[in-house]
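Field reference: sequence -> structure
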Amino acid sequence: MQSIISLLRQLKVVVLAQAEPTLKSIDKISMKKKLYKIFLLFFIYPIGVANANIIKNDQYCHATIIDLIGHTLKLKNFRQNLNGNGVIISSVCKALPKEKNTIVAAIAYTSEENSKIEGISKKELFLSLIDTRSNKILSSYRSFIIEDASMRLEENSLRIDTAAYYLAGGVRAFGLDISGDYMPNCGDGSIGARRTLYIREEEKIRPVLEDFFMSTSWFIKGSNCQQNENERVVEHFQRSISVGKNVNHGFNDLLITIKSEIDDGSQSKRKPFYFTLNYDGKTYSTKLFEESYLKWQR
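Structure field:
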């Protein structure tokens, strides 16, 4: 693991050093960038820093989308917060797989009126479905994100998930992942992105599964305080969501799978954890899931 990290650091230096490549070297540098991202994604799991800052977000929002949302919200300086002159912290846009003319847009931004409530830092979240042909917002949802010791929004903190979440006939959910810096002092581990699944209901968007963490990690040897990585061993718990066949209150069940991985190359002794989330008519409650998961994790 130490040699891989060293190699990646050297590769990153080479890529960044060639800010003005010649035409002949573009392909090589592009390949290096791809390899670097692949290694980061599959071999390096962050402890103390969230996944959001590892891979640059490629879900770009066109200026017309930003302008449309800014006009709808009636906000000034509705642009990316560069040099402190914009209110947008993170923005992502992605077309729906079966509806190429419909874009999911998610924007986290600051608001002077609601930036702090009783000393708690709060950021606004605006989620919308937009028809690119008419340039109109079809449906929307407004919420907020609380920042604390385990959550601080960055430019790449948001990511849209358009996996095939077919919950019922004509109902396909989409997801939004929210990540943030997590850097506890000598903490026992870390948490990854939290995913919320949404469905469209005419002019509104409604969450049906909220704040579901897609990964967690903890130290089984050593701690975040130790400088020598050879003295640290981390266990990672990777979660996945799929759609089941059974139906409750009109919506298909969600199937949760969690697998354990050890970063020292040894085989985890844990068997995969499986759990079924049932729809209760309003949401997919995770209370029973969390109880069962904690027992399995012990």
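Note: The chain is about 20% helix and 40% strand.
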